[in-house]
Amino acid sequence: MLKPLGDKIIVKPKEAEEKTAGGIYVPDTAKKKSTEGEVVAVGRGKYEDGKLVEPEVKVGDTVIYSKYGGTEVTISDVDYVILDEDSILAIKQ
């Protein structure tokens, strides 16, 4: 598994929809890149004014993140995105 450093967050993206609400199957080439996923690992935070500020997200949270934020990696055939905490836009309730 990966261990994020500093204020990095590792997210497992949600699978793209296989078919539309109308029942039409979407080919792989037409699927939208996901911007939602589950947090699987969290770094310890970043230092501001000499104090450690812990991340607001935690493992298990479902988050919405910036479309172009982060770095995509594949480990053991599983896709992940490594993001700065600032690239996370919201926690889904």
Please give a structural write-up.
It is a single chain. The strands form two sheets. The protein has a six-stranded antiparallel sheet, with no helix packed on it. It has a two-stranded antiparallel ribbon with strand order 3-4. Helix content is 0%, strand content 43%. The protein is elongated and about 55 Å long. By secondary structure, the protein is mostly beta strands. The chain is built from no helices and eight strands. It starts with 7 loop residues before the first strand and ends with a strand. The mean pLDDT is 87.
Give the CA-CA distance, first to last residue: 26 Å
Q: Overall pLDDT, averaged?
A: 87
Low-confidence stretches: none
Can you count the helices? Answer: 0
Q: Largest beta sheet, briefly?
A: 6 strands, antiparallel
- Assembly state: single chain
Which of globular, elongated, flat, extended, rod-shaped describes the shape? elongated
Structural class: mainly beta
What is the spatial order of strands in the main beta sheet?
6-7-1-2-5-8
Strand content: 35-45%
What is the number of E strands? 8
Order of helices and strands: EEEEEEEE
CA gyration radius, whole angstroms: 15 Å
Helicity, in percent?
under 10%
